[in-house]
């Protein structure tokens, strides 16, 4: 079972991505399949400008729920990674998402539902 505080953080991140029109947002619970990773939020942005807008909105909304400033890997026109410690966010273009197939790599992870 996920801690209420962590659930709120995950919901906030997913909602922030959706606010900037990110698509195919999924949250993976990796706690049963990895000894070092806990949660992934993966979403798709259509282009570099939208990708940056999604990342910026997630950063702002995450701060509001008490998450520390993330470390951001990039910049890239195809994929930006934000690490909040136990929560790692992947904002990817469709091409990058199809190519790297993180969902396939972590096929045994549980998908959490944060449908709006």
UniProtKB/TrEMBL annotation:
SUPFAM superfamilies, A to Z: Nucleotidyltransferase
Q: Name one GO molecular function term.
A: ribosomal large subunit binding
Q: Which GO terms describe its biological process?
A: cytosolic ribosome assembly; negative regulation of ribosome biogenesis; negative regulation of translation
Q: Which UniProt keywords apply?
A: Cytoplasm, Repressor, Translation regulation
State the source organism's domain of life: Bacteria
One Gene Ontology term, aspect cellular component: cytoplasm
Q: Does the keyword Transit peptide apply?
A: no
Q: Does the keyword Ligase apply?
A: no
Instruction: Fetch the Pfam families from UniProt.
Output: RsfS
What is the documented function of this protein?
Functions as a ribosomal silencing factor. Interacts with ribosomal protein uL14 (rplN), blocking formation of intersubunit bridge B8. Prevents association of the 30S and 50S ribosomal subunits and the formation of functional ribosomes, thus repressing translation.
Which proteins does it associate with, and in what oligomeric form? Interacts with ribosomal protein uL14 (rplN).
Q: Which HAMAP family match?
A: Iojap_RsfS (MF_01477)
The similarity comment for this entry is: Belongs to the Iojap/RsfS family.
- The protein depicted here goes by the name Ribosomal silencing factor RsfS
User: In which organism is this protein found?
Assistant: Deinococcus yavapaiensis KR-236
Classification lineage: Bacteria, Thermotogati, Deinococcota, Deinococci, Deinococcales
